[in-house]
Known about the structure:
The complex is a heterodimer.
Chain A: H1 2-17, H2 19-41, E1 48-54, H3 59-70, E2 74-78, H4 82-90, E3 96-100, H5 104-110, E4 117-119, H6 124-146, H7 155-161, H8 166-196, H9 199-204, H10 210-240, H11 249-274, H12 278-295, H13 310-315, H14 317-330, H15 339-359
Parallel strand pairs in A: 1-2, 1-3
Antiparallel strand pairs in A: 3-4
Chain B: E1 11-22, E2 25-36, E3 40-44, H1 51-59, E4 66-71, E5 74-75, H2 81-86, E6 87-90, H3 102-112, H4 119-128, H5 144-154, E7 162-166, H6 174-189, E8 193-198, H7 201-207, E9 210-215, E10 218-223, H8 225-231, E11 236-242, H9 248-252, E12 257-263, E13 267-272, H10 275-289, E14 293-300, H11 303-311
Parallel strand pairs in B: 3-8, 3-9, 6-7, 7-8
Antiparallel strand pairs in B: 1-2, 1-4, 4-5, 9-10, 11-13, 11-14, 12-13
Helix pairs in contact in B: 3-4, 5-6
Amino acid sequence: MKTFWDFVRADLQMTLRNKEALFWAFFFPILLMGLLGVVFGQEGAFTAKLAIVDHDKGPVASTMKAVYKQVDALKVTEVADEQEAMAALRDGDYAAVLVLPAGLQRSWKAGSVELPYYYDDSSPVESGTVNSVVAQVARSFEEKATGVAPKLALRAQGVAALGFDYIDFLMPGIIALAIMTNGIYGVSATFVTYRQKGVLRRLKATPLPLGSFVSANVLVHLIRSLITAGLVLVVGVVLFGVHVTGAEVLLKTAVLSLIGSGAFVALGFYIAAIARNTEIAAALAQVIATPMMFLSGVFFPMENAPAWIQPIIKVLPLTYLVNALRDVIIKDRTLWFVRWDILILTATGLLFLGLSVRYFRWE
Amino acid sequence: MPSLDGRNGDDVIVVDRLSKRYGDLVAVDSISFAVARGEVFGILGPNGAGKTTTLEMIEGLRAPDGGNVTVDGEPVWPDPKEVKRRIGVQLQATALFDYQKLHEIVFVFGSCYGLRRSRAECVALLDRVGLADKTDAYANQLSGGQAQRLSIALALVNDPVVTFLDEPTTGLDPRARHALWEVIREIRRDGTTVVLTTHYMEEAERLCDRVAVMDLGHLMALDTPRALVNDLGAQATIRFSTSEPLPLQSLCDLEAVTTCHEDENAGYAIVAGDAQAAVVSLLALAHERGLQVTNLDVRGANLEDVFMQMTGRKLSDEDDKPADDGSATEPKRRRFGRRGGSS
């Protein structure tokens, strides 16, 4: 047991002394959050310009316009001429154009309303936000008109409902991303290097059970993930004014970070198990981590991603860590609420742990 | 002195018909020997002779396919844990943890044996291998020779009964090699048995009390370096250059010559049972052809010649440069060119 702690101490020491590792593990996530927060998170930076062309000018149209103008995330301009509005959309002056057609008043009463809506699909992030906000307002209108609550609610609605601030949305994603990177890249690189350099073989020549060396290393990776999560959380709240609700958020974040870290450490071990050298390990880590980085909703919501990509999103373990952290940190959900995410992450961890035990070679 | 069959009471290692095969390849073929307490025991052979595999089976790192081995009276297999506790191991080309200082690495390896070495003890151990001034350096800042010495220090961290050094000087420059020999002699003086593998003939000759010569998984001979050389008879190697090239066959036909080949440094090398007769007939040949013989060098037999005699192959890569490889003619013996090709 003492040997175990000696290795924990040595591993921590090595982490702290390796400036490059320190940068990537602890400062890069904060840097990334800061940069993206500054670029997208400023007041109005995530407000999109919406042009409304009102051909009807009836009371329903006026109410609609008034509601859209109240939405923080939108900057609404009324344009009289539809041609002019479309030209401006093509020029990139607007993110979207909503047309309230003549006869809206009549068709509203008849019960069927169709609003022509055009958006700029050359900027997916912005149009994604606009689309969801416009659709959401339209839906709330419908809800009022019909008195029927929509049966399906998208997760993005919750974020918007609490006051959409990009940095709030981003921070849990950054924590999840850092945990994934730490597990996948950190563990695979460490163990393939140890194997390649003969360290594992050398340790095998001592009476020490290698399990205690490996578990010390795993513990250090879990500690690293906890530190990163804590740092990002504290810096997010203190420096970037992230709105965190609920007092137990630190504890809940810690629990999710440990579970998520366990899953990705196991995945990292699996990479180390099947990769013959460091080059192959790095390539594999890249191949596995990159889709997760962009498709798991770390930087922007994936609800608006094309339907064919949704199944892919659903098999990426990072999706569940991102969702769970976001629910817990900014929506103050309980751990029980995210139990399915926790279950999926745990299962992922156990699966790759099993595969690693099966395929890992010491030399 | 221990006997070849290992029945002497003070043998620290007894290897009995140990075998290992990898698929069709028989890496170690039923070898037996014993190592006496307190000696420096060398296993000499070219790459692929089975030296490392033999060592790994004794160290408890690789399970043998057949035979037995005991270390300090303990059977190594099936559970090598107790033996691992009593031995020290230095493996070929081991790198260690980056960003750990030398004294910290020594500490952590001590910890692997359940020992908690004080800082002073760690420094003292580093001092034994001449690294006292490097205790606060990181392992990745060491030169090749220093890294080898660190890895020898780690092979001593548990005060082992035997320490195993696998090609400790391979890849080192001559100065670093000589410094390392001194370290190994020091270890022996402190009473630790040393088992080392090498493919350097000089290393085996100067460092080892006894040498086991291995080739292709077989034990070819086991004795003191002097006895091995003496068994060859009064063989001598004669090296020289000539002002104009000579056909090799004419050299092989000289009096008392057993082998002859082209030699990078001096043009030709011939091995002869009677050095005087060979030199006289060589000079006569030169005179007859009107040639000058220069750089004439006559040297007594060594382990290199022993190996050559036993296997028909050269031992070390060092004297085995491509320039002279494959160009030798050896009428009396089959030759297995390791690099292949002939001129």
